[in-house]
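User: What would this chain look like folded?
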Amino acid sequence: GDNIIYDKFLEKIISKTNTKIKINDSHVLSGENIVFFRSKMKIQSNESSTIKDKFDNVIKLNGFDYLIKTKILKTNQMELTDTDSNTYKSNNAIIDLEGEKLATKDIQIYFAQGELGENARLKGSSLISENNVSIIKNGIFTACKIRDGCPPWSLKSKEIKHDKINKSVNYNSSWLQFYDVPIFYFPKFFHPDPTVKR
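Assistant: Here's the prediction, encoded as structure tokens.
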């Protein structure tokens, strides 16, 4: 950092201006007004920060708490853009930086432009992601143009599995909806990842 203050009485190190933190040669955290609490082994900031990992995934944070021993990061608001240009937006996210795991509430996923156009998106009540596989609970998928009100069509499901390696989206207990009216039930359903060219 450019301006670091060490408060020996409180065992607190404050980096007020541009700051970069290297985490295990796998992540770089950048931001301002970052505080390191030595006795708690915790790094904290209430400002906007960014994390970039070795795969070039970028996570924008609106405040965070990072526990050094467990390598767990918590944030009130995050926006993750992965190497495929998919964007994940969520509140109340927990990220395991060592195990590359993610758990969030109220997830919104905006897929990169592909065969289904530029509006393919998925929303759910929660997401757990590990090893490039994401499980979304109570999810809704659509590729309709973003507008006010409900989309003309959507797939609503109790559970949606997005497999980034096999480029597939799998649904359990799903309804095809037209203007929020259930029309057709699918016990199981799947389709290619919206970014797949076919």
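The chain has a mean pLDDT of 91. If you want, I can go into more detail on any region.
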